[in-house]
Amino acid sequence: MMSIWLKAFATACIFLTRLPMPTLKTIAAEDEGRALLCFPFVGAVIGLLLCALAIVSVELFSPLLLAAILLAVWAAVTGGLHLDGLADSADGWLGGLGDIDRTLEIMHDSRCGSGALSTVVCLLIVKFAALTTIISQQYWTILFIAPILGRCVGPLLFVPGKFPYLPYVQPSGIAKHFIDHCPSVARTICWLTVALCGLLLANTQIAAIVLGSCLVMLYLLRRMMLKRLQGATGDTAGASTEIIETVVLIAGGVAIKMAPII
Q1: Among 18, 78, 117, 223, which one has the highest count of C-beta atoms within 10 angstroms of its own C-beta?
Q2: Which pLDDT belongs to residue 260?
């Protein structure tokens, strides 16, 4: 049983990151389904790497330089997977003009337009600025939980259930096996992970601001996807991951500033 879940975790790492993993001779559809359940745990690995780098380097570099290094490492570790989803989604939203088929067609095109470039650059600038606040305060818990909460989005969107579930609108795609064979317990595990992240913050006000901001943003993203696509795709899930990560950093920075007065 342990080897089954280790294989699922390795599959999730191979899909979500560029971290060195053992070569898997075969990856069955069931392995991919279990891998979706492991997404938050991969986020924890990314968060630990970022925190370790930050703690070791915080006395060596200025907050601005360390924020730039962390952002570069963050993108490198993930191979820009979710940034690619953000870029494709931005192009589709801006070029699809409200038409579902046209939006999906543009999102499927690997070429990036001006909308994609502008959106990715703006998000990275905001993420960078938010990181400088987190680094200045050395509140590493925010940095740790941001990748975890971001990677709870995929299972919550795609595993059937209540909010924020959305149907997968592409008849085929890279996420198809992940979704079709994912255990339903994945949703419960993700919500428990969200609650644990709140406990890790060790401050009721900060936890309320951070988790509340994420839930509001997830609700808005869900409405956008439902209105435009009547569901979600792998690209929109990737875009949502990037956006939720950024919201965690922003809300964390704001909450830290407010903590002494609330």
Answers
A1: 78
A2: 58
User: What one-character-per-residue DSSP string does the chain give?
Assistant: -HHHHHHHHHHHHHHH-----PPPS---HHHHHHHHHTHHHHHHHHHHHHHHHHHHHTTTS-HHHHHHHHHHHHHHHHTTHHHHHHHHHHHHHHHSTT-HHHHHHHHH-----HHHHHHHHHHHHHHHHHHHHHHHHT-HHHHHHHHHHHTTHHHHHHSSSSTT---B--SS-TTHHHHHT--THHHHHHHHHHHHHHHHH--HHHHHHHHHHHHHHHHHHHHHHHHHHSSB-HHHHHHHHHHHHHHHHHHHHHHHHHGGG-
pTM of the model as a whole: 0.94
At 262 the pLDDT is 47
Task: Check if the beta carbon of residue 11 is closer than 8 Å to that of residue 35.
Answer: yes
pLDDT the model gives residue 3: 84
240 is written with which tokens? Answer: 């949502």
Residues in the chain: 262
| Model pLDDT for residues 188-222, shown as the tens digit of each residue | 999 999 999 999 998 899 999 999 999 999 999 99
138: left (phi over 0), alpha (psi -120 to 50) or beta: left
Contact present, 126 and 19 (Cβ < 8 Å): no
CB 71: neighbour CB atoms within 10 A? 16
The neighbour count for residue 18, using CB atoms within 10 Å, is 13
The residues, ordered by sequence, that sit 6+ positions from 222 with a Cβ below 8 Å of its Cβ are 157, 163, 164, 166
Judge contact between 179 and 36, C-beta under 8 A.
yes
* Nearest C-alpha neighbor of 209 from the set 166, 156, 158, 256: 256
More confident residue, 52 or 173: 52
